[in-house]
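Supplementary Methods S3. Input chains for the assembly prediction are listed below.
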Amino acid sequence: MRMPKTYLALTGAVVLASGIAFAQQNAAQQPADVRIEPVRGHIYLIAGAGGNIVASIGPDGVLLVDSGLSQNADKVLAALNKLNVEIANRGGLPTTTVIPPKPIRYIINTHLHADHTGGNEKISKSGKTITGGNVTGEFGDAAEGATIVSQQAVLDRMGQAKPALPFAALPSDTYHDDKKLSHYFNGEAVLLSHMPAAHTDGDSLVYFRGSDVIATGDIFVTTTYPFIDLANGGTVQGELAALNHIMDMAVAEFRTEGGTLIVPGHGRIADIADVAYYRDMVTIVRDRIQDMIKRDMTLEQVKASKPTADWDPRYGSPDRFVEGVYRSLSNKK
Amino acid sequence: MKTTGFLLLLALGAPAFAQMDFAGDWAPVQDEDNTGNPYVGEFLGIPMSPASHLRGEAWSGSYMTLPEWQCRPHGAMYISRGPSQVRIWKEVDPVTRQLTAYHAEWLRSIDNPYYMDGRPHPSDLAIHTWGGFSTAEFVGEMLKITTTHLKEDYYRRNGAPSSDRATLTQYWIRRGDYLTWVTIAYDPVYLTEPMIRSSEYRLALNQQIPPYPCDAVEEVVRAKGVVPHELPGKNAFMGEFGKKYNLPLEITRGGPETMYPEVARKIEAERNKK
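Predicted structure tokens for the full assembly:
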């Protein structure tokens, strides 16, 4: 599918302006300084393009978890290409021989927000889906572009966005409860788990089973309080269930640190202890607000009592979080 | 020319001659407040921020029974202040015989390497650990250690929190069989000013630090997801320490003023008024 250049240029603005385009943090709107941080083995963190992007790079090609903001897609592709070539050529070959990098095969969207899906269109178009046999025979363009995978609710909501998102920006392969890629990718299983009604109603955890790395999307971030996106189906109880699920999946290497590495939707690489601290904070704030609701306190009164004051110097403004917790517990919209 | 060469040789060799050796097994000399069992609400001497006070008041001892916290080690913000013995050993490059790192490990901790080979600290995207990432250098006969990338931790094992944005500067000062371990904690979240503490260790030639295996168990049967804590203003144990030692509550709550000698005079003056 080809689109006029002017239409493509407008894509970023459209995604940002749409009702679903709510970034986790304002910093995501700043000009990108895209950086790559090794996570473990062939798994990398690409930071600075909006939400964190996790990349699996190897002989099967590239699998990305999320795609950043649309305006940063070129920078992501440039950084990825440079890293991809570097990895492909780690083998002591003569310097005159440059092995071309393998294409991007998959983009997995952890949820619908534009700081995690904005690069879908441009980045997927630069890739190629693995296909063949009858499929290729019947559809000439079947291999064009990387496959975009998400939980069904992500497609449902992105498909209803007004103004409409470009067709090529939408997930092309969806699931409901759980999904696993039907084959190893870069030597390991990749498993997706739906975390219902958490940050949104379409959150996925992506687990690289061999590398023992979990990409959490915005269920877990190290930079701010969680954003309970009520308008898109999020709840604090679902958020806590998802954080506890991450802890169930993760195993420490020794003394509650290391082992399973956890890449948040925003911020630094973490482990089970970091998630436990975050879970503790969300639970304690939830309990405090629940107690205040029992005492018939209004949202304004709850905010004025500063139920998050212990963590505000660490996580910043609590208003959106407090409101999300209050409304998801009290059912007052 | 010969003199210049000799001076140059001396200058290059000087660090090697000046280097103090810290390797060995050391036992803590517990003559200060470095007890392993503080009271709930015993925050005297810690320059706690208002946010830190609130965390401390919300803390419940039952918190440590959660399976995910049972096997946690003491982190760098507390361990050198605790009651445990420590082993310090040297990592030496087998070819150059240069000191690559010192390592320290207490009874209930993890290996803490202090790198001396000039490697840079990791990026801000890297994982944080209980021991953090440390580099070290000699300053005269002292060893200066700079630690970043620390996990959230505690300054005292009763809920006085340290944040994952805190950093630590440490100094080792050896005088014969005694080692003074100075820690300076900087924490923009939970301290109002740097906190300087020193602890004493004595060389222990016959010491053996046993292994400390840990297997998390279900210590308390509770519903999944429950996190023990006290609601604001509801912690009934906050006044225990002050009552036992006849100290005003506002003093036991810590804060920067409680680090300095004037606080003792203030307490004495209050008592004399009664």
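The longest strand of chain A covers residues 35-40. Chain A has one domain: 5-330.
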